[in-house]
Amino acid sequence: MRQLTFAPRFEDWQRVARAALEQAIPPDEVVWQELNADQPSLDIFEEEVPSSGPSKRAQFRVPRAFVELARAVALNCEPVRWALLYRLLWRLTHGEPKLLEISVDPDVAVAFQLQKAVRHDIHKMRAFVRFREVAQENGSWFVAWFEPEHHIVEQNAKFFVDRFASMRWSILTPERCAHWDCARLTFTPGVDKSQAPSDDNVEALWLTYYSNIFNPARVKVHAMQAEMPKKYWRNLPEAVVIPSLLQEAPRRVEAMARKSAAKTEANEERDWHPAPVPETTSLSEVAAASRACTACHLYKRGTQTVFGEGPKRATLMLLGEQPGDQEDLAGKPFVGPAGKLLDRALAEAGIERDDVYVTNTVKHFKWEPRGKRRIHQKPNSREIAACRPWMEAELRLVKPKLLVCLGSTAAQAIFGPSFRVTKQRGAVLESEFAPKVVATVHPSSLLRQPDEESRAREYALFVADLRVALAAAAA
Ligand code: URA
């Protein structure tokens, strides 16, 4: 018997198997020994069985379908897979070139079963990974916990990169973890489930989202359980709402019939693409590129991208939430009622608006119809994440000495979701995005004050915060 030791990856097995084939070692004389992570990755096999050169390789031709099958089977966790693959390889190259077409052959049948199990696991991971937002010093990170049955994390990571290119995320699993920082995909060893965040605001958001997309008219409980084995339910926040949704189903079917034309955000999200921020030092080139942005579905709802405005050399930058109705039509930030109030407050604080760079965290207007009016809707964390590259590009190019965050969406985009404007307004803070940052309320909150007295009081506080910002910028 020959013991062949190799790292349990397709490419390593392929190399070792090819050499074994060249040495004419029959399948029943081989013991396939996986190299553990703590063993040195010596090419032990090649020491024992040196390859006899490239000339013999040419005679071992296998169908392309076998390579595809073997790649998938290699991801299965079944230990016998390596011996099975070598047996298939041997038979394909020793008089049975059409072996893969004989689906009743036991080796072929088992190989296809192992491939199917891997594909199923890949599909499950794509369907059931749920990211939870974790606040970090430099913004949000989305973390998911998943327990795959097979070795699919590396192979599947590209799918998540394409789907969530503008989010920074990690998928933690017991065997291997994948990380994406919006630029690089990296892998680290597996972790314990305790390292995955278990609950936060995203879970609540997801439950609402799931309740909204849950289609009571299509409930087939048995099919649902078959598609979603109990194993996955543990990691799915929506599992807790399913029983009550099922109970409410008949009433909701009726309501759905009325609203059947309404498109869900879930459908719209399928069209998301990464923000195409060009590598340039020109603000106007970045602004021009932003007009073609389809990084989230809001580009379909807003009239146009509303990019920031103001001098590139500005020492002060104002960051709002998102354009409103009038900004959306004009293509300029802060020109509507909140903008007018902002202009007044800036003047009172001694700040020239023309000297300031004014922009928003999200560059498209998110709204819902009410009668003939378009009513502002708060952007959600995924829309903010999708738009983030534009805001970061503006901050990188303008390099303001002082950034004023107007309202909680802007402040949380800079300091993370736990930041509270009510607690920290008016303080001069530091961040990686600007040496000094002052957070204050959004001017539209002044417009919503219930009476003249509170409006005057809040307005005075707002002007005071702007004065703090001006003084800090000048210091
Ligand atoms: N509110 C904002 O946050 N930005 C605008 O541009 C207008 C209103």
TrEMBL record:
Whether Hydrolase counts among this entry's keywords is yes
Is the keyword Magnesium assigned to this protein? no
**What Gene3D superfamilies does the database record attribute to this sequence?**
Uracil-DNA glycosylase-like domain
Task: Indicate the segments forming the Uracil-DNA glycosylase-like domain, all copies.
Answer: 307-467
Q: Which domain of life is it from?
A: Bacteria
- Name the UniProt key words of this record, in alphabetical order: 4Fe-4S, DNA damage, DNA repair, Glycosidase, Hydrolase, Iron, Iron-sulfur, Metal-binding
GO molecular function list: 4 iron, 4 sulfur cluster binding; deaminated base DNA N-glycosylase activity; metal ion binding
Q: Short name of one Pfam family for this protein?
A: UDG
Biological process, per Gene Ontology: DNA repair
List, alphabetically, the InterPro entries matched.
DNA_repair_put (IPR023875), DUF4130 (IPR025404), UDG_Type-4/5 (IPR051536), Ura-DNA_glyco_family4 (IPR005273), Uracil-DNA_glycosylase-like (IPR005122), Uracil-DNA_glycosylase-like_sf (IPR036895)
**Which family does the similarity line name?**
Belongs to the uracil-DNA glycosylase (UDG) superfamily. Type 4 (UDGa) family.
Name listed for the protein in its UniProt record:
Type-4 uracil-DNA glycosylase
